[in-house]
Amino acid sequence: MESAVLRPAVRKLRLPFPKYKRGIGHDLLLDRFSEDCACQESVSSKRKIRVGIIGTGGIAGAHIREYLKMEDVEVIAGADLIPGKAEAFFRRFGVERARCYRNHKELIDSEPDLDAVSICTYNVQHAEPAIYALEHGIHVMLEKPFTVTLDEAIRVMKTEKKSGKILTFGFQPRMSENMQMIQKIVDSGELGKVYYLQAGGGRRRGIPASHGTSFIQKDTGGVGAVGDIGAYSIDMLLKAVG
Ligand SMILES: NC(=O)c1ccc[n+]([C@@H]2O[C@H](COP(=O)([O-])OP(=O)(O)OC[C@H]3O[C@@H](n4cnc5c(N)ncnc54)[C@H](O)[C@@H]3O)[C@@H](O)[C@H]2O)c1
Questions:
Q1: What are the start-end ranges of the E strands in the chain?
Q2: CA distance linking residue 218 with residue 60, whole number of Å
Q3: Are β-strands 49-54 and 73-79 bridged in parallel, bridged antiparallel, or unpaired?
């Protein structure tokens, strides 16, 4: 079980990295969390959005299932470090036409027409594929947690700002009806100035290891429970107070 408490006000988020005094990186990070997503780009209604999936493990299944429901999206390629894994993944979902590659670089270099990628790699492989995709003008749907170090987070955000592309994260709870209601209440002013927030979260049925344990192994997960499950709580807290 894990719980996260931020106080007195999440707007003054104090990052748990003492060597980072408030500076450019810190401001950039806070900006990023407090900014509304104002990115807008016109997309031709005549053609489908071409998507690639980087990392074809457990959560990639949830991504492709949703893409397959969207009439204006076409999954054209995928990549995984483990030979044959991407091919087996696409066979399982009946998308045999998708081209398969061995890693994010090979996929992005070989697919000049990609519009967007889902990055479903384990945590320590979030930053590099995200930066590489944004640098190549590709929108990114990045799984949580954002990154495993503050340096990586800042590098990704700087690249996003430069690229003008959309970077979004796999934090489903921020879209939930509960969160919308919480935001509505906070925005209404009924609670006054919010100075204390608390959130908790945990896994009720142990470690979901059916697809492997990459998210709890240090060399692949990179961070502990706060990064894995706590990331949802922190995201909800930040979202609640805008
Ligand atoms: N939003 C959610 O509900 C949710 C749920 C589960 C997992 N996740 C997140 O999704 C991510 C993946 O989790 P998982 O359980 O699917 O892990 P997994 O280990 O099952 O799959 C990750 C895959 O990525 C591949 N990979 C790593 N680096 C790569 C690279 N550079 N190029 C191509 N392939 C690469 C690995 O070979 C592996 O097959 C984690 O960051 C995890 O926190 C999110």
A1: 2-6, 49-54, 73-79, 99-101, 116-119, 139-142, 167-169, 197-201
A2: 21
A3: parallel
Q: What tens digit of pLDDT does each residue of 70-124 get?
A: 999 999 999 999 999 999 999 999 999 999 999 999 999 999 999 999 999 999 9
104 lines ligand 1 (CB under 6 A): yes
Burial 218-242 (b: 16+ CB within 10 A, else e): eeebbbeeebbbbbbbbbbbbbbbe
Distance 59 CA to ligand 1 centre (A): 6
Domains of the chain listed by start with CATH number: 2-17+173-240 (no CATH), 49-169 (3.40.50.720)
Whether ligand 1 lies within 6 angstroms of the CB of 80 is answered as yes
3-state DSSP helix/strand/coil percent for the chain, to nearest 5? 40, 15, 45
Enter the tokens of residue 137.
């003008």
Looking at ligand 1, which atom is closest to the CA of residue 123?
A: 41
